[in-house]
Design a protein that fits this description.
The chain has one domain: Up-down Bundle (Formate dehydrogenase/DMSO reductase fold). It has a two-stranded antiparallel sheet with strand order 1-2. The termini are close together. It is mainly α and 429 residues long. The relative contact order is 0.17. The protein is built from 14 helices and 2 strands.
Length: 429
């Protein structure tokens, strides 16, 4: 992939709209044929479809029997579904940021991976929305959110921003396809890129505000939560894109230069260090002598959430080492490092959500029942002495179905959409 000078600014080869129409047509034909004839891709589509159907059946069971079938109770009103929602919003936002930044600022990109990154963002956004839907006890009353909406609620802000974000991601992908065909100017694409970048940052900031603006939860109420969410999105989004493009290159779908993989790796390492820095700042503030959050830090470092905490720290640190040490930047280790970073960010989401409910801000008077919490027979001391919430098999199954839906959308995109860079279909290559 070549870089070129345009108006004194280094531009990505994705921004080259001078490619002949014939080459673009050849690209579409070659890409479509390669995808259709791929047995592995067809198998992946079939497996994803089956798991999605199973998830739908389990969701129907949840709807028929009620949310009491889950492990969520009054003291743990959010669980695996909302944890997954936060996680997939981060994955989607990070992928779109990686795609839009080079085009928005006219700088060198990553070798034509933009369309793949955007479509992975779309698939992750569908997963995030799906997890919100299954978390609703009465999803068929979703219209009431808009009829009786409270525009002063961050929850309503997130609904609006997330819907806008999904539409904008689709528009951005469409604009890139039209630009490749010479049907859209570079200026118009750059404008859309800037809007997409702003929306990607905003969607994760609003998600963070849902938690950060709640004064009743010690672990959530911090102004650092929004930038921390954005940094986490950059980590897991970049890691996802790198793992996907390395996998697609190994499968023969993309012909990505190794130099672009190295650039992605260095960027991922930098994002990981920034995210760990934010985490360290938050821990220092909470644990400093006289700080009100010492109990929170103890719960993370040595309490019931310690496995998630140390998985995040060790996994992200290992990812940074792999990304920055040239001898370790093999494709296999980069994929492993990316998966460690993604797992670490997921653990961070578990810490945030479950930990926010672990510390009681109010003492509950009166009798305790199984409808209020899962450890009802052990009293308040038992409730907060260990992990209160653990998902039921039904929750795991429904969540797996939603995730499979995201995979299904992504695989179908690889099969039917021209997501390869147009340059790869050049007769000279």
């Amino acid at each position: 992939m070549s870089e070129y000078m345009q108006g004194g600014v280094i531009a990505d080869d994705d921004l080259d709209f001078s490619a002949p129409r014939q080459r673009e047509r050849a690209h579409e034909a070659v890409g479509a044929r390669a995808a259709v004839k791929s047995p592995a891709l067809n198998i992946a589509i079939g497996v994803s479809a089956v798991v999605t159907v199973i998830g739908l059946v389990l969701w129907a069971m949840q709807l028929s029997g009620g949310m009491v079938q889950t492990a969520m109770r009054n003291l743990d009103s959010w669980g695996l579904y909302i944890t997954g929602f936060m996680f997939f919003v981060g994955l989607s936002a990070g992928g779109l940021i990686i795609s839009s930044v080079p085009k928005a600022f006219g700088i060198a990109g990553f070798g034509g991976i933009s369309k793949v990154a955007v479509f992975s963002s779309i698939a992750c956004t569908v997963c995030a929305i799906g997890l919100v839907v299954v978390d609703m006890g009465q999803p068929f009353r979703v219209w009431e959110l808009f009829v009786y909406s409270n525009m002063g609620s961050p929850l309503m802000w997130d609904i609006i921003v997330l819907a806008t974000y999904l539409i904008l991601s689709c528009v951005y992908l469409w604009a890139q396809l039209r630009a490749e065909r010479g049907q859209m100017s570079a200026v118009a694409l750059r404008v859309i890129s800037v809007v997409a970048l702003v929306c990607a940052v905003l969607v994760h900031s609003v998600t963070a505000w849902i938690f950060g603006l709640q004064q009743g939860h010690e672990m959530w109420h911090t102004a650092l939560l929004a930038p921390w969410f954005v940094s986490s999105a950059l980590v897991c989004g970049t890691a996802l894109v790198m793992a996907v493009v390395i996998g697609l290159r190994a499968a023969g779908y993309l012909a990505l230069d190794q130099a672009n993989v190295v650039k992605l790796a260095k960027l991922l390492g930098a994002f990981v260090l920034v995210d760990l820095y934010f985490f360290g700042c938050d821990l220092l503030t909470e644990a400093f002598p006289g700080g009100s959050g010492a109990e929170v830090v103890a719960m993370l470092v040595s309490g019931p959430l310690a496995p998630y905490f140390w998985t995040e720290i060790v996994g992200c640190a290992a990812c940074a080492v792999i990304c920055f040490v040239p001898a370790l930047r093999t494709n296999t280790l980069l994929v492993i490092g990316s998966l460690l970073a993604i797992a670490g960010i997921f653990c961070k989401r578990v810490q945030l959500l479950v930990g926010g409910f672990q510390i009681a801000n109010l003492d509950y008077a009166g009798p305790l029942t199984s409808m209020q919490h899962t450890a009802w027979d052990s009293g308040l001391s038992g409730i907060y002495g260990g992990m209160v919430y653990w998902p039921t098999p039904l929750e795991f199954g429904v969540t797996l179905g939603v995730v499979a839906l995201g995979f299904l959308i992504f695989f179908l995109g690889l099969k039917f959409l021209p997501l390869r860079p147009a340059e790869e279909a050049s007769p000279s290559k």
